[in-house]
Amino acid sequence: MPARRALVVVSALLAGLAVAVPAEAAQSWTVSGRHGLTATVSADGAEGRVSLAVNRAGRTVLAPSPVGITTEHVDLSKGLRLLRRSSGPVVEHYNTKAGKQLSRMSVMTESRFTFEGTGGARFDLVVRVSRDGVAYRYSLPRSYGAILGEASAFHVPAGSTAWLAKYRRDYENPFLKTTSDTAEPAEYMHPALFETGGTYLNITESDVDGRHSGARLVHEGGGVYRIKYWDEKVQAPGPVDTAWRTVIIGDLATVTSSTLVDDLATPSKVRDTSWIKPGKVFWSWLAGGREAGQSLAMQKTYVDYAAAHGWPYVLVDAGWYFDPNWDYDPTWETTSWIPQLVDYARARGVQVQTWVHYDELDTAEERATRLALFERWGVVGLKIDFMDSDGQDRYRWYDQILAETAKHHLMINFHGSTIPHGIQRTWPHVMTMEGVHGGEKSSGLTTSHLTALPFTRNVPGSMDYTPMAWHRPSRTTSDAHELALAVLFESGMQNFAGRVEDYQARPEAERFLDQVPAAWNETRLLAGRPGESAVLARRSGDRWFIGGGFSGEARTVDVPLGISQGRWLVDIVRDGLVRERRVLSSGEKLTLDVMKDGGFAAIACRWQPGVTTCDQPVSKVPSTTVTATPSVKTNPGKAFEIEGKFTVDSPVSKVTLLPRVPNGWTISGPAVTARELRPGQALTGKWTLTAPDTAGYFDIPVVATFREGEDEQVSRVHVWKPLPAGWSYLSDLPFTGQSGDGPIERDLANGGAAAGDGKPIAIRRTQHGKGLGTHANATIEFTLDARCTEFAATVGVDDEAGLDVARQRVGGTVTFGVSGDGRSLVDTEVLGVRTAPRNLAVDVSGVQKLTLRVNDGGDGTQNDHASWGDARVKCG
């Protein structure tokens, strides 16, 4: 509301200051802001063209650059004359939920120049100057047909150093160093960074939404970078304000900490923002790949880690609504395990976000159904992927999806998207956006690129780089430099990409990450230069978090401690992930040795005698242990027992211990309870369970619930159907043979080279409780001695192959054959991962030696996991 009141006052001031200006031969007008920034608008007398230049402290930092706009009906880039000018201040205070500074004050000088073109068509050139930049936009009072383009361009002084990234629709190209005039003629992304005489210019755009089209920069030579829309025609059926052409200007510290892009944007459209909460996320894609996206068990381990370390979120990435072949599962809305994971996570103080493809939400009907479904499930955030467009239609979709997700209290992370253009002010539940050549990439992640990002892509808004993928071979940073990215890269949802075991192998990094927040009260640049180094300090409450990253050879660095006045304990993790502590006063130098492409991370807290750490307590679930009967073998309808035990490392209260069985299973025996449980005490129970008419492997959790949280341990129950008299499962009989990759498995699929590394046998998502798991080329021989009459099995490529075939796009095709005494009894056609299983029934009367064969389907044996489900023989 304060922002709206300020705008009303400004409107009155502008009206009061309106002054008619007669046309003259050549004219210029200045708009001045604080800190020595001045924009000069000029009109030539000959052709009626208008330009804008920027001066900082008496030096030209942006040479006269054309402005103007063209529509289907009028060309407002020439033949212009000024009708009037009005000026006044624009002062706003607003708060954000994420970003480099949560509470913001914006003070700008605005001048509105009303120009008239040939035929009487008019538009306003609205220019704003602030302490940290200059911006302008066009305001059309009525429709002049579709907008075809702008004359807008930026003429950067020759020889200016430039850090540019080639344009691509998802903004995922690296930033490379060049110069303003020698840069290759090409299309470049926003933002583009230039340095001229010690002044930096970060060129981008703001307040882009469905009224308009996104744009990019085109360098055609000579250091002039013109604006090019995504769309050839931008629909403008009525009055319209275009996007702000925005240049953040100042020294590097000013550019880095600037909030100008948000300052220019439309104020928040979300009244109640209490549900919007930034935080750290255990992200599964790089930690577990495609398998993690399809595994409830793996996701539970990520929840457990987050709960143990006080991380508020997990993000389930792609795969959860695909089948084992990575094909779309049309039943996901009723069969997904996401609600189970939400319940599991909620009991541990963790909330769940999910990945979803743009095309699952690109119609009004899909959004109405699915956003409500996600809210009912208890999902708190969506990572929406693959928008891949800067077009007006896509921005209209952004307007729709953001209004609707706000209604359903779903926080948003956009991937495969544009970059922030003030969207986080207008829609504060946008926590972060990708739009970066980031941690998912397998190449190009040089430390020169990484040390450019705080000054380029991360300036306009949150950036989901996804750091901490310790295991990735594409990583070029030292461990300490990687750790520093948690501070260097601002993101309202900080999606950490590491595996559990890799965090645990780095206890000092683990400790630091448990402390670091994801939103900031203040941001300061301590030292750096794009592509060489970056050291940022970000304040959260009364602590400063410092991240330093360096590109190039090992060196000794001196970093001025430019934080709040006073004496500080600086708690450092330096290269080698070694922790050390120093007491320094603000302004003193922090001197450190850094290794090649090294860095450091630190926390600074107020020092006084006796203060030895900057760590604060982390809210997490109590440490507890559940043990359960490890495994059981049974048949449908046959009762079996499970035992469980619960112990604690710290007191808990209101405890209940009970197995949680799937629908259709029965359990007898009461829940075991305790009002309180203390270390050294144990709660134990025993229950009788019965499986329904089903087959396969089932993880039955023995669950301890208590006021402070929940814990569980699973008992794996192997269920198979008993056979009629005379029949035997081949997996229970002796055999000889060999498999193409790894051993022949009994009652499991062949997973790989190690024994027992396969999953339960499943063909087209149907589990089989018994069977043989193989890999082409394989032969299995059984001695029947003419005692048997029938062989039967359900055969096919096992679901074990699906993900690898989808990922590698090779293999997963086989043929099955059954021979008796060297004579073929049956052979199948080539079966693949999407082929329905084949039911074999073979007369084996008189056969002495039965041979089962699996052969490659003709495309090599890679990923040829083949299973003989419920393979059995009838013998007299």
Your description of this structure?
- The chain is mainly beta and 876 residues long.
- The protein has 4 domains: 27-264, Beta-galactosidase, Chain A, domain 5 (Distorted Sandwich); 276-435, TIM Barrel, CATH 3.20.20; 624-719, Immunoglobulin-like (Sandwich), CATH 2.60.40.10; 726-875, Jelly Rolls (Sandwich).
- Helices cover 15% and strands 41% of the residues.
- The chain contains 15 helices and 59 strands.
- Strands 1, 8, 9, 10, 11, 14, 15, 17, 18, 21 and 22 form an 11-stranded antiparallel β-sheet that branches.
- A hairpin with a 4-residue loop joins strand 19 and strand 20.
- The longest helix has 16 residues, at 392-407.
- Residues 1-23 have low confidence and may be disordered.
- Residues 855-876 are annotated as: Disordered.
- This is Alpha-glucosidase.
- It comes from Kibdelosporangium aridum.
Keywords:
single chain; 876 residues; mainly beta; Beta-galactosidase, Chain A, domain 5; TIM Barrel; Immunoglobulin-like; 4 domains; 11-stranded antiparallel sheet; 7-stranded parallel sheet; disordered N terminus; hydrolase activity, acting on glycosyl bonds; signal
